[in-house]
Write a structure and sequence with these properties.
The chain is an alpha+beta fold. The chain is about 50% helix and about 15% strand.
Length: about 325
Amino acid sequence: MDAARVQRFAANRDRLAALAYRLLGSATDAEDVVQDAFLRWHAADRERIEVPEAWLTKVVTNLALDRLRSAMARRERAAGDWLPEPLLDGDPMLGPADSVEQRESVTLAVLILMERLTPAERAVYVLREAFAYRHAEIAEILDITEAASQQHAHRARRRIGAERVGRQVDHAAARRVVEAFVAAASSGRTERLVALLTDDVTAISDGAGVGSGHKLLRHADPQRIVAALRAAFKPTPAKRRLVGGCPSMYAALVNGSPAIVAAVADRPVGVVVLQVRDDRIAAVCGIAAQSRLGRLTERWRQREHDDPVIESW
């Protein structure tokens, strides 16, 4: 492949990766899709490609949809063992974040809600809300009619509902949220934690302290969620053995939301993401599976960090 063609693909790589990540919720799968798209770009007849950016967008979208529709993906996601792969603030795979819609489309809360959508609805939602494609362009990408694209978008918005994130959260605000949450969760005083949570708070985890294995607490008694969170933030010898030491707790921004990163010797062993609504915490998502922390770990080691909220947990 000539250098100009490689450079043309490289100029689109971050955008394509951000698209694939939103469609799949997995940085690992997104990277695989982008690599597959590069191989197709290498093999394609360039004379027949009028607009390379549009061609690449269509290829990546359809490769991602093929993965969503695969039997393995359907079994894994239907079994409830799937959670999105968290990404640190500044990761180019998070993609555009200029508008409210773009920021919302990459939060863990919305990535989880997108599991309610069909692959086609998910693709239309992402292309429309995160990348501002017109319905005529989406119809061309997905080989559907413009009317079908509009219908998919309407159904997707209705199913995802009102998971609004509103204003952007900066690092200082994220640290304040994390400090308040950690202090309340570890204080032993139930009322302090209750005051931080919305009445309809939800909690979900793949084993990062909210239970063993995947667990969702939705529409549960708030006291039950509070009890689970307090138990999660109580250090024990067994938990320390599990993660290989006494982790430090850092405040961070993950997928645009305040988050706690637990790290042992600069190795993240768990992430707890806090979804904020009207200055209260509406959702808590804990992820500890190392298979979901690979990209976050890589980028964590490449940057400096503020002082930990807890030096040794």
